[in-house]
Records
---
Amino acid sequence: MAAMNHCKRILSSLRLRNSLFFTQLSRTPSPNNQVTHYFYLSTILGARQNVFFSSKPESFVDIILTNDWSKQLEKGLGNLDFPVTHEAVMYLLKKLDKDPKKAGDFLKWVVKQKGFEPSSSMYSLMLRIYANRDSMKDFWTTIKEMKENGFYIDEETYKSIYSIFRNLKMETDATALKHFYGRMIKENAMGDLAKDVSELIKKQEWGIEVERELGEMKLLVSDNFVLRVLKELREIGYPLKAYSFFKWVARDLSFQHNTVTYNGILRVLCREESIEEFWSVVKEMKSLGFEIDLDTYIKVSRHFQKIKMLKDAVELYELMMDGQFKPSLGECNILLRSIAQSHPSNLDLLFRVVEKFEAAGNSRSKIIYDVIHRCLTNLGRFEEAEKITEAMRDAGFEPDNITYSQLIYGLCKLRRLEEASKVIDVMEGCGCVPDIKTWTVLIQGHCFAGEVDKALFCFANMMERNVDTDADLLDVLLNGFLSQRRIFGAYQLLTELVNKFQMRPWQATYKLIIQKLLGERKLEEALDLLRRMKKHNYPPFPEPFLQYISKSGTVEDAVEFLKALSVKDYPSVSAYQHVFQSFFAEGRHSEAKDLLYKCPHHIRQHPAICGLFGSSNSNSGKVKRFPRGSLSSA
């Protein structure tokens, strides 16, 4: 009975979705109306280019997400006229990537029931989806299936998954993947041929001679082979030559490009030197009825953002939002943040993204309001920023620490420090308690403006409010002191906070202050920090001490340094070796011998020490070298 009811719920859901879909068809929308994520192929319309889509989002995805995978669900899905295209299946898989089992079930279903043939890029996506502890059986099954079907793991996918395994401490699987990938590269004859082709193309300018040599190779071209050559040329940095090869196989070998190979060339051409060709391919795809798949969009968009080609990233987002396979809210947020973090922030690009997002029937999220607010405050347009804050309130989102921190940052940037400090009072008056990050932004703003004493005053106010400080904030304050060459003041602040509040500074913070102290010839204070590092279980930091003591330190300084190196009675033999070696390197043989007399008996009699001094006496100061870093065992 329970199974029967479950089946009825699924079928009811499917009928409702279809009803909504065909209701949309009956309304006969104009060609200019925006369409969204429903991509059911109408049996009435019959042609892919003439599909109209419902304004309701992602029905097919919703059906799969809201129901357990079962025979009943498969039967219900089979009754829907779903277009089994590369783009559509990639879209579904990306939407299901947080549910590996359901993604796998869906792919198996379209392969078995719809006769769909996965591409190498789709297999790569499935491997990334399966790259977790709970899906390893499916992961290795998919790899076996790829090999049986003549596909390979490309270098990008291999590196990505190998990194995931290492981060998850899955060392056994990481090692197995490494060995499998190595064997596959050697065994894959097609892969070798693809390398031969890419090497031929690489060594000379594209022209008649290259085309002649390629023609003599009598290549058997497939989707997989084309993708392999394109990826080889991408990895060695020849996007324009990859484009020439892409056109050549179509023209001279009569190879018919499809959505898989078109998406493949887009991933290669998303570079500044080939951006004209990129958009030319996009236009050509559109004329042929092909779509950019969601996985390709994400990779290309992230690359545009990485290399600061934000205008192209925005144009690509607009294109995708006008198509069937729309990017998620998360992708919209990532793009908006990239724009906001650019210098200076480009409000025109920002609002183009927001407007396109809203035109698809979406409402602004808190993150979107914050990104707009951040851009405006960063540009000093505070009145407009306040209007965005009011609009955010009207939409049901209260300003929080993120919102106020952005306002503080913008005010500090323009040296309006008093106004920035008053924001703290405004926050508390609104019931929003400033957190450590907000205080850090305020204090860092004062430090950047050269007002370190006022920054210290802000820090005192924070401490009075019982806000727990952290190593990041301490680092900000100390860098403020160092920017004004107040080295000893930085040392005093660090030691006071460690002593009174049991703070644990970053290792990098300790190292920086030690170097600055030694630069001011304050060895005693630097040694004090070295001892504190040991108490905090940081590895020793001997290099600047060795340099300082060997050039201008005394024997007593060397003795104190050796004592500070170890929590035990005496440091290791290698520690003594390095000190002696540094003295010899500066030609200070007498100081080295004086230090030797002050060493404990077991050090003076150690063969390594004896050999060191023997070689120095007979070889005019040329001493045995010891590997750097051996003091870490001290």
Note: The two ends are 72 Å apart (CA to CA).
---
Amino acid sequence: MKYVVVTSGVVSELGNGVAASSIGVVLKACGLRVTFIKIDPYLNTDAGTMSPDEHGEIFVLDDGSEVDMDLGNYGRFLDAELTGDNHMTAGKIYQYVIDKERRGDYLGKTVQIVPHITNEIQEWIERIAIIPVDGREGPPDVCIIELGGTIGDIESRPFIEALSQFSYRAEDNTFCSVHVSLVPVIDIVGEQKTKPTQFSVQSLRELGLTPNLLACRSAAPLNKKVKEKLSQFCHVPVDCIVGLSNVPNIWHVPSLLIGQKAHEAILGVLGLPCLTVEPKLDAWMDIARTYDQLHAPVRIAVVGKDTNVSNAYRSIHEAILHASVACQRRLVVDWVPASDLDEETANQSPDLHEKAWSLLKGADGVLVPGGFGHGGVGGKILAAKYARENNVPYLGIGLGMHVAVIEFARSVLGLKDANSAEFDAGTRYPCLIQMPEMCVGSRRTFFRTMDCKSAKLYGNVRYVDERRRHQYEVNPDMVGELESAGAKFVGTDEAGDRMEILELPWHQYFVGVQFHPEFKSRPGKPSPLFTGLIAAASSGQRNGGGMTQQSPSNLEKRPIPAKVASASTTSGGLEDELLGLHVSGAALAH
């Protein structure tokens, strides 16, 4: 087993997750099988209870694990199916060691950071590294380990000590240390400065890890003199110093590494020089170049609670991006704070209120993502109402589906007090009720009919497996009343008791889902429901202002993207277009 450890220094948010994922893509392109382990030194056992506005998105895996969003990067870049064991936290390690101590496993020994915590970290790595994540039999060739946080953080010391011990006892040519650092430019001087990286590497070496390769984040490519200076002061060969300069999109990062022979440097350290052939990244780079060449825009308004935090909806953004590339559209995302749509904001901050509504009304499509709590719920309900009444394509995920149900009950059924038990436990009309258990992880949804947009987008399969993270569901006692007024629940659980997919048949594209399709979207294999949203938004684009409600007969005459139209083999309006989208998405993935 070969190990590549990725650390970072100077400042946080350097993009070491993208760097680690890109290294994985490059090694996979060299013919190696790759797996990942993410180490987070916080004391939480997982990310499940962490706030998105502090930690970023909570990513959900098939096994129900709630993990760091970097595991989402790994999955998207390598199309890997990871488990909760691929995410190591200080909380998990400490809990495991304390449980062993309570059972008496240590036979009365004094339990200490060294050796007990550090040994457990190393044993975890060795145990998980041999488990394949690519769906094939046999162990992977390389395990990429990303250490979260920044070198010098006190909470990461036990992990660095464990990795130092691990490198010491590892066999020759099995351990490669990659350090991601920052080479800033001082505006007044206009010169790339190496001192921050020098100090970061010095700190890393003092803690027992010596980098084999430096990956330096910078605004512009590193010049030759900067590389030579870093080599001299950091004791890293010039050929093992690569620049990670700004690129049009993150899909270019693997190409950036290959262009600087980073794969040859890593394979050389790992004793695999026979594999130093030019990696095959044609399909990957086709997607990156396609994105760069897109000009026709599609504008999507994402209405959420944490829109001021860039990483709070990371998978949502990536899924929209994957779909926009498949539909040959340049994505423009307008992040709309849900609370700014409320009347309360209109009274207190009229400028913010006006701006939020301007963004919403200028969008070609509306997406309301999942979430918990009361924050911004009123604004999300208004967004769903606007999309429904003006025939604007709408995708509601989790809570986004819930607010659509609440809005329909209030506006169409006339139940003004309709609400979710999550927001009003005493509501007279509980559209959504609490489930007996928290539903997390992959579950199966069965289509009740093939005559719906969602089934066509998924390729007319009988069921789909998607990931969930919710504790409230549509009240079964209200389903009949909702459907009699025109709403249709086209997907349910196997027993037919739990409503999973909502559609408004007369609407251009109005879909709400209980699950989170964004977690399984991949470059080249976009989520079908996101593809449907982008296709509908593209075919119904407007020149400013809102879209007026139109009859189904008029909707069928809308133009569709050329790429999608060429993939469709049937005619008959938007729903046939959506069936064609499934074909074009499969072709793009192939």
Note: The radius of gyration is 25 Å.
